[in-house]
Amino acid sequence: MAGVNPWTRDQLLVALTLYSQIPFGRLHSRNPDIIDYAKRLGRTPSSPAMKLVNFASLDPFIIESGRTGLKGASKADRAIWQEMSEDISSIEIQCEQAMGKYENTALVLHDSGVQDFTGRERTIISKARLKQEFFRKNVLAAYEHRCSLTELEEPALLVASHIRPWRDGVEHRLNPSNGLCLSSLHDKAFDRGLISFNQHLEVILSPQIKKLTSSFAIENLVKYEGKQIRLPVHYSPDMGQMEYHRRLYKLGEFS
Question: What pLDDT shows up at residue 108?
């Protein structure tokens, strides 16, 4: 397979961690994150790039969206993906341990995709949680990396919001249909039950929000009442979970 030397299990776990965070369209050897990663493992950038695309060929989200990765996934690739599918919590712990072995300094993701000398913070992947990262990756991809309400397209300001809260349903945590792509502001409002969406996916405002009179509140929240969100290209919102959200926060009609 890719690389001069066989991939160790620890290296595969690090690759899986990296795959959970990099968008499908950036799985190439010119990606600075992949270049950083390759240096740590003593490989050429093309080696991990190929490994990540092999993982893509096993990813149900990628397959169902009509895209494909490479067809050269190894037996070891398939085995570790199957392990993750069956017990992601265990693999998540192993990924963190494997990342630690390759991190004298933190391996970081370049949010902009280009070298950044401005001093802005960048994402540290050693502390990433595999479950959340796969959920975020798939939800944002489904909504084409745009807020479903405002069309905001800056990834640093987008959140994969759980419709049924993370704490309330383990079996729904990783399902992209239990997610919405929202701006950080609207995610916070949704998470706190200050807004929700009706059976037509139109915005419902809480009485608390309706009382606000500042120009900021009107421009960024109040004016969206009744606006329908844009639908994703895959994994439409689960309306049963949306009803759960409305019931939870006592907003609007429940059917």
Answer: 47
Give 251's contacts (C-beta < 8 A, 6+ positions apart). Answer: 193, 195, 196, 204, 206, 245
Residue 11, pLDDT above cutoff 60: yes
CA 137 – CA 145 distance, rounded (Å) = 9
Query: HSE of 30 in the Cβ direction (CA atoms, 13 Å)?
Result: 4
Query: At 208, which amino acid appears?
Result: Q
Residue range 76-107, pLDDT digits in tens:
999 999 999 999 989 999 999 999 888 754 44
- d(C-alpha 68, C-alpha 115), whole Å: 29
Cα–Cα distance for residue pair 132/173, rounded to 1 Å: 8
* HSE toward the beta carbon, residue 218, CA cutoff 13 A: 3
pTM: 0.79
Three-state DSSP class for 119?
A: coil
Going by C-alpha positions, the residue among 125, 120, 130, 92 that lies closest to residue 108 is 125
